[in-house]
Design brief:
single chain; Rossmann fold; 2 domains; globular; disordered C terminus; 15% strand; alpha/beta; DNA polymerase, domain 1; disordered N terminus; 7-stranded mixed β-sheet
């Protein structure tokens, strides 16, 4: 049992510790907290940490909270019950955000927040298959309705595609050796458990005892492919551009240099077209105290931009996005 916010909860339901909360709250507006009113979209609601902080800071806003994971969403609904009437909950991915907002009757927003990457609750539950720290099924689906799992990718993609995935989506320098070892090993027995995959990666990389576990980058790349995170991110950015009012703000937290690069390029390109004003040229990171108390915040980066004018076209939920790693090499 652990204490959180004065309450005691069981270990499996430990609340996710949100990152850069102070920075998110201070960058939603430059004005006084009671001067901003309207809808704020929390596109990655998780356990509701950022939403709680925003609702407590800004008394005149309402939150549309989206998450694709029903288990995590149920935790947020329970923990945010005191804000009934100020929060609308929805389950779905960024690619369905436009339709979900329309169904909720929300036509505009004063703020949009995306906190990318996996929730710590995913890593703390071995049965979800996100972590190599404890053995579990090789799954990694944030949305359980997705058909393709990490095991499907590991056991069906060819060696070159696996190597490219590990390198481009995980920044893994030993990607080719790891991919070769995986293909050789799966000929004997398919990969079904996280521990078996982690052991194979460790053996192929030859790295042990470092600050970063040898399987970290490969597992990250697999998670991004399973959940089609690159394509979903582009959907989210496009929806934000269309839904925000003039002077509305977009805040995006990333944990991966590739993700941060996508956000940076999108905002810079659209800023040149007069759609955005960049608040910070360089992303903001956690302070020393947060890095010490929340190790998962070390790689977090926050970018913020102000919406200048409306885009001409409406968002089409059918827009295809994503890198070539999500094109369908392997079962969907």
């Amino acid at each position: 049992m652990v204490a959180y916010g004065g309450d005691v909860v069981s270990e499996p339901e430990r609340v996710h510790m949100p990152v850069l909360v102070r920075e998110v709250c201070t960058h939603l507006t430059d004005g006084p907290s009671d001067a901003i009113a309207g809808w704020v979209i929390d596109g990655t609601l998780g356990a509701g940490g950022h939403t709680r902080a925003l609702l407590e800071t800004y008394p005149n806003i309402k939150i549309f909270g989206l998450d694709q994971d029903p288990e995590v969403l149920s935790i947020a609904q329970r923990d945010l019950v005191e804000f009934e009437g100020r929060v609308v909950f929805a389950r779905g991915r960024f690619s369905r955000l436009s339709a979900l907002l329309k169904a909720a009757g929300i036509e505009s927003a004063v703020g949009v927040l995306f906190d990318l990457g996996a929730n710590s609750l995913h890593f703390d539950r071995p049965e979800r298959g996100f972590s190599f720290a404890a053995d579990g099924p090789l799954d990694m689906r944030m949305d359980p309705e997705r058909r393709r799992t990490a095991a499907d990718i590991v056991n069906t993609w060819d060696e070159e595609d696996l190597a490219d995935l590990f390198y481009h989506e995980g920044g893994e320098k030993d990607s080719r050796r790891i991919a070769h070892a995986i293909v050789q090993a799966r000929r004997r027995v398919p990969f079904l458990r996280t521990s078996a995959l982690a052991d194979t990666i460790c053996g192929a990389s030859g790295r042990r005892g470092g600050r970063i576990h040898p399987a970290t980058r490969s597992f990250q790349a697999l998670r991004r492919a399973v959940n089609e995170e690159a394509g979903e991110l582009m959907h989210g950015l496009r929806v934000a551009e269309h839904i925000l009012v003039g002077c509305g703000r977009l805040l995006v937290i990333t944990f991966h240099s590739g993700e941060d690069g996508v956000v940076k390029r999108f905002l810079q390109e659209r800023a040149r077209g007069g759609f955005w004003q960049l608040v910070n040229k360089k992303p903001l990171g956690p302070g020393a105290n947060e890095r010490r108390t929340n190790p998962r915040a070390r790689s977090a980066r926050l970018r913020c931009a102000i919406r200048i004018r409306k885009a001409a076209k409406t968002v089409d939920d059918s827009i295809a996005g994503g890198s070539h790693h999500q094109r369908g090499e392997g079962p969907q």
